[in-house]
């Protein structure tokens, strides 16, 4: 687990990195709970996606979720996202093997976030 200060630092660094590349992170949703809380916002449950959907009026069927874990891809499916992308950075390489064993296949496996963004731009949703 990471402290709240640590998480805020990570979020700050993410926003800065995206901004330096010409992008913007509008919002970050995170789950503050432990598994024993059995909340609906801890992945693979879709609570955080549903909160973002309500906040920004997102059409989930025409949306893409990218992540680097098995739980990310399962969360995308549980939320009804139109597409899911597994990014190989971080946990992605191991996640790809586990997902294949479970016969769960993301719509695209990207080398990194840039590759994922290119796929999103070039794919009609």
Task: Please explain how this structure is put together.
- With 125 residues, this protein is mainly alpha-helical.
- Helix content is 46%, strand content 10%.
- It has 5 helices and 3 strands, in the order ααβαβαβα.
- The protein is globular and about 35 Å long.
- The model has no long low-confidence stretch (mean pLDDT 94).
CATH superfamily of the largest domain: HAD superfamily/HAD-like
At CATH level 2, the architecture of the largest domain is 3-Layer(aba) Sandwich
- Overall number of strands: 3
Most strands sheet: 3 strands, parallel
The name of the CATH topology of the largest domain is Rossmann fold
Q: Which structural class is indicated by helix and strand composition?
A: mainly alpha
Supply Rg: 15 Å
Strand order of the largest sheet: 1-2-3
The best one-word shape is globular
Order of helices and strands: HHEHEHEH
| Regions with little confidence, pLDDT below 50 for 5+ residues | none
CATH level 1 name of the largest domain: Alpha Beta
Overall number of domains:
2
What is the helix tally? 5
């Amino acid at each position: 687990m990471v402290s709240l200060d640590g998480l805020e630092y990570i979020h700050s660094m993410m926003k800065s990195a995206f901004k330096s590349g010409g992008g913007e992170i509008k919002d970050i949703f995170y789950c503050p709970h432990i598994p024993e809380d059995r909340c609906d916002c801890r992945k693979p449950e879709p609570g955080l996606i549903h909160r973002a959907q309500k906040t920004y009026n997102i059409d989930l069927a025409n949306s893409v979720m990218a992540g680097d874990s098995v739980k990310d891809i399962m969360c995308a499916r549980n939320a009804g996202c139109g597409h899911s992308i597994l990014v190989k950075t971080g946990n992605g390489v191991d996640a790809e093997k586990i997902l294949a064993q479970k016969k769960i296949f993301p719509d695209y496996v990207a080398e990194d976030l840039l590759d994922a963004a290119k796929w999103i731009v070039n794919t009609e949703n």
